[in-house]
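New here. Invent one.

***
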Amino acid sequence: MDFRYSDKVMALQEKLSHFMASHVYPNEAHYAAEIDAGDRWQPSALIEDLKAKARSAGLWNLFLPESERGAGLTNLEYAPLCEIMGRSEIAPEAFNCSAPDTGNMEVLDRYGTPAQKRQWLEPLLAGEIRSAFAMTEPAVASSDATNIECTITRSGDHYVINGRKWWATGAPDRRCKILIVMGQTDRDNSDRYRRQSMILVPKDTPGVTVVRALPVFGFDHAPHGHGEVLFEDVRVPADNILLGEGRGFEIAQGRLGPGRIHHCMRAVGAAERTLEAMCRRVRSRVAFGKPIAEQTVTLERIAEARIMIDQARLLVLKAAYMMDTVGNKAARAEIAMIKVAVPNMLCRVVDMAIQAHGAAGVTDDFGLAAAYAHARALRIVDGPDEVHRNQVGQIELRKYN
């Protein structure tokens, strides 16, 4: 593969970096103050202002490859842009490139009917509403999605949904209008991967209850958050089914490949900014007679962080390149590898930065505690490390059959 970015990508990198420097970084503290000032779940006026600015600047919906509704970028072209967005918690939403909406928009674009696209995809692409994805359940080990127990039962011209989901990112958000729900439509199918389906459930449908917002190491991520959602005799039109009964795993694989690579792209950006913070900190502090930056252990940690970040980036770019050239299915080993390697890298880099900051590192003053919580959660989000390692190992062993 060619490691050079195209002129188009480099121009977008420059434009995006300028926007981040002018509008995003200076407003991070203002955003935190806005959320803390009153009702934490009130949508942010600052974010809406940033969204308008980004859209006017042509930095909007940069994801969505292979679609006339996107920016015309491949996964490989989007990767360095997504990395820049990952440098700030508030950036992805400003460009309408945040999870879970990107994955949900890709699902609707690929698998939705014209009516579903008009009703839900168009307002999502416009940044007018938000969405949630409800698959994981508290009662079962959802890393094996065949365990999912939520039922989607046909009743005349409707489906009736019953079940309890959690870690539905975005469900507590007051702007969330639609949930994509995965559940069983054919419990007795001999093919365990044909029992599941996905269906569109408007959040205001009777029987849908957001039970609570779930914190991540104490961080509630308001006003977006992660929700536990109860579905009690929820009736939606039969036309809300996505692609057809028994196609849930097919849709999931199409959704999770891009979703996983986006998480990893952003994580590389977060690691870069963390390393920058560590370097600035150790240059400004003196201990035991000399700058902390000159301590051998510090130099080793900085070097180790640089090596790990560059390794992770190259692995992500390889996965993106393969997704573009041979498809998500053929790139499944590479996608699984980055899902293990990148969050672990981010965990280690943030941990070293916390150590370099001393007690200040575990406060909210430098954002490192929040960064570590996010990094640690990524080792579970979209499947735990163990699942991805097993997949990589099985793929490797098949070479010797």
Summary: The mean pLDDT is 95. The first helix runs from residue 7 to 24. Strands lie at 130-134, 151-155, 158-169, 176-184, 196-202, 208-213, 226-237, 286-287, 290-291. The CA atoms of residues 319 and 334 lie 5 Å apart.
